[in-house]
Amino acid sequence: MLRKLALALLASTWFVSAHAAECQDSVFPLRLTNADNVLQENFGTAILLDRERWLYLAPAHVVTHADRIFIIRLVELRVVFIDPENNIALLEPKDPAVMKFWIGLLDRDITALTLAPETPAAGEVLVCSYPLKSLTAERARIVSAADIQPSALDKRGFMRIDKEIFPGESGGAVLDSEHRLVGMVVTLLTQTRELVNPGVAIPVEKLQQAVTRATEPRLEMGPPAPPHLTPAAAP
Fold first, then answer.
1. For residue range 148-201, what is the model confidence (pLDDT) as tens digits?
2. How far apart, in whole angstroms, are the C-alpha atoms of residue 93 and residue 78?
3. Domains in the chain: how many in total?
4. How far is CA 141 from the centre of its chain?
5. What is the CATH number of the domain that holds 12?
6. Strands (E), 59-146
7. Residue 195 included in any domain
């Protein structure tokens, strides 16, 4: 009976299109609640980086104000590292045994993504995210510096792609042709709360720095985000 219930819960969480098959083993929806277990309006995506530790990557603005964070429906996560300046958070299960139990009920293997050595200057990428309960995967192209007008986005070191990123898609994985992680998409608002539509992603170099810092003995906290361009709150 317990197994049937668990499988039913998993089935209600993961709706995967055929085009997203190559993402479904590494990219997962987040479920955020307050202290009373009431669902928050925020939602986003988490990326598995390390299966041994069950280390997940997500945007800091998505998880910062949540009292409880869940993945795979009932596995509670805790924040182990946060960098507000670069909008990066790393999370792991509060109880690894619970994670292993739920993963054991799946009919497929779960795979951690490998970080690419550097952000490619051009080329095609695959963007995978959970804007709602459905995993979407769309092809996009990396926009080179020569193709755009310089802006505050470039000064902050964002990767640019030709896909618009809207609230709710934050945390999506940007994969190269070798299925390596080259970026994490985020939604941004200006100081007047207007949506910045151009597709932006946090490049792999910043993600790698966060992973490296998170392994240090003492937790580091980055400086606050610049006021002129702040992460969007998902609807």
1. 555 545 566 888 888 888 777 889 999 998 999 999 998 765 555 555 656 889
2. 6
3. 1
4. 19
5. 2.40.10.10
6. 68-71, 75-83, 88-93, 124-129, 134-141
7. no
Amino acid at 229: L
Distances, alpha carbon 29 to alpha carbons 1, 133, 225, in Å: 25, 7, 25
Q: Is residue 49 part of a domain?
A: yes
- Cα–Cα dist 209/31, whole Å: 26
| 100 occurs within a structural domain | yes
Tokens 């998993």, located at residue:
10
- Residue 54 clears pLDDT 50, i.e. is over it: yes
Full residue range of the structural domain in which residue 46 is found: 2-18+25-104
Q: Which helix (H) or strand (E) holds 214?
A: helix 204-214
* Residue pointed to by tokens 């939602």: 43
Does residue 34 have a pLDDT over 80?
yes
